[in-house]
Sequence to fold (211 residues):
Amino acid sequence: MGLPEVLDKIAQACRRAGRDPKEVRLVAVTKGRSVEEIQEKVLAYGAFPLGESRVQEALKKMDLLKAEWHLIGHLQRNKAKHAPRFALIHSLDSLRLAEALEGVGEKAGVRLQVLVEVNLGREPQKHGVLEEELPELMARLREMPHLEVLGLMTVPPIGPEGVVRPIFRRLSELADRYGLPERSMGMSDDYEWAVEEGATLVRVGRALFVD
Fold:
C-alpha cells in the first residue's frame, strides 16, 4: 500500500464521517524497521510522528533520525527516565507509572504529555486501565503538575467490525466525558473505522511498509 494510499484512506474515512482530514494525525509505527526504510517509506513524504513500542529501539533510532517520537508500547517504570525524549507517551496504564513519570518530569523540569491507555476489551493479556478505574486515575493525574493528559488510547480485540468499532466509539465517548482532545486508536487493519469513530491519532505500521 504505502503512506500516500493510507493518507487517502484516512481522508476518505473523514469525509464519510463529516470530519476534516486535518483533525487526524498519522503516527508511523517504525518498530522493527531500519533507518533506511523509515526514510524511504515515511520521511520522504513529510515530517510524520514516528511511533516505537520499545524504549531501547527508539533511543537508537533517535540518534540517527530527526523526528517527533511517540512511545506507543508499554513503558516499564525502570525506563521512565527516558520519557522526556518522547513528544508523547500513548501508554500511561497505571497510577504507579504515573507517579514514576511525575517524578521524572519534576526532576527534568518538564511537563510530560501523555495519553491514558484504556483496556476497553478487558483482555487480560493487554495493558491499560479498565473503564471503571478511569475516574480515580484521572482524578489523581490532575494532581500531578508535571503530567499533561491530552487524551486516551486503546488497542481493541482482534475481530470483525461489529466487535472493534464499538470499542472505538466508547473511547471517543470517554474522551468527550473528560474533555480530552486526543483519541489514539486504529492500526493497519482498522484505522478507517477508528477515524469514522473520532480518532485523532492512528498508529499505522505494516500498511506503510508493505509494497
